[in-house]
Amino acid sequence: MSLTPTNPMELGFKAPEFSLVDVVTGTSKTFQELKGERGTVVMFICNHCPFVVHVREELVRLANDYLPKGIKCIAISSNDVANCPQDGPELMKKLAERDDFPFSYLYDESQQTAKAYNAACTPDFSVFNENMECVYRGQLDNSRPGNGIVVSGKDIREVCELLWHRKEVPAQNQTPSIGCNIKWK
User: Fold this and answer.
1) Of residues 135 and 4, which shows the higher confidence score?
2) How many CB atoms lie within 10 A of CB 159?
3) What's residue 172's pLDDT?
4) Which contiguous run of DSSP H or E holds residue 124?
5) For the residues 118-146, what does the mean pLDDT come to?
6) Coil, helix or strand for 40?
7) Is the previous residue joined to 176 through a cis bond, with omega within 30 degrees of 0?
8) For residues 18 and 20, what is the distance between their CA atoms, to the nearest angstrom?
9) Which helix (H) or strand (E) segment is 34 a member of?
10) CA distance linking residue 38 with residue 155, whole number of Å
């Protein structure tokens, strides 16, 4: 595990389109099909990363809380399964079903989607407004494994509240996420 932060990027970029397999349904899904009416949270996660395991329950709560408000979450795993077999599609499906994910869990076998989103770590978050413009790239909250801070989803919840109320998301105070590096081929 290599501790890695989110890659800094200028906000406002359009959500890159993709077509990836949803491991639960076995069907291909696109950003256009999965995006929310008011906003979309794109999360690069995986099964095994301790930083993702630490926040996984909050990701499910967050998605359940904002789905009725027109904000959807999309989870993507881009890890090389040759080196991380625990992140393979069959185990992704088992995890998504066990934890009752209210979002699609997509497998990015080619890693092209991770590259298009400039993802670097798990978890890595980008939040897009209704116009598919990135308004936030950063952490879920200040909690990390072992730091004693309760997982709340505070940072992304604040962004989702602004999107829900159709208010502008301020560009300042966006703290990068940090986690395990994506396992590149």
Assistant:
1) 135
2) 22
3) 76
4) strand 124-129
5) 96
6) strand
7) no
8) 6
9) helix 31-34
10) 17
CATH superfamily of 3-181: Glutaredoxin (3.40.30.10)
pLDDT at 1 over 60: no
CA dist list (Å): 10 to 41, 84, 103, 134, 137: 17, 31, 26, 9, 9
Rounded Cα distance between 148 and 38, Å, is: 33
Per-residue CA distances from 33 to 7, 29, 86, 126, 145 (Å) = 26, 6, 28, 17, 34
d(CA 89, CA 69): 29
pTM (two decimals) = 0.96
Burial environment of residue 139 by CB neighbours within 10 A (0 to 12, 13 to 18, 19 or more): buried
The answer to whether residues 161 and 57 touch, using CB atoms and an 8 Å cutoff, is no
pLDDT band per the 50, 70, 90 thresholds, residue 79: very high
User: Domain locations in the chain?
Assistant: 3-181
Give the SS3 label for residue 137. Answer: strand
Q: What are 30's two structure tokens?
A: 């696109």
